[in-house]
Amino acid sequence: MLKIRLKRLGSKKAPTYRIIVINSTTKREGRPVQELGHYNPKTKVMKLDLAAAQEWIKKGAQPTETVAYLIKNCNEDGTLNYVKKETVKLSKKAQAKAQAEAEAKAAAEAAPAEEASAEA
Predict the structure, then answer these.
(1) Which of 17, 50, 76, 113 could share a disulfide with 6, CB 3.0–4.6 Å?
(2) CA 88, CA 25: separation in Å to the nearest integer?
(3) What pTM does this model have?
C-alpha cells in the first residue's frame, strides 16, 4: 500500500520535511515513489503540488494524519494557510484573578438594578 507521508531532513532540533509518496513498508528515509513538496514546521513554510497529491489519493494512496492536515489547509498555489491562534493561555493564578474580577463586575452591575426594582 502506498502512503503519503513526511520524510525528515535537517539537523537536530531543526527539522524540515519532504512530502513524499512511498510504499508503507519502506523505512522513513527510503527512496520515494514521488516527491510532492516540502514543509518547514518552524517557519510554517510549505510548498506542495496539490494536484499531484489529490491524484495519488484518488489512486488509493493513504495520507498520514499530519499530511492530511497539510493538504486540507493548503492554498491553491501549494502554500500553507496557517492561522495563528488568537487565544492567550493564562496560568491558573491569572485565570482565577480574571474570574474574580468578572464576578465582582457582575455583582456591581446587579446591585444598582436591584435598588431600582426595590424602589418601585
Answers:
(1) 17
(2) 42
(3) 0.67
Q: Are 18 and 37 in contact (CB under 8 A)?
A: yes
CA-based torsion, 70, 72, 78, 83: positive or negative: negative
- The kind and range of the H/E element at 115 are helix 92-119
How does strand 62-63 pair with strand 2-11? parallel
Distance, in Å, from the CA atom of 83 to the CA atom of 66, rounded to the nearest integer, reads: 16
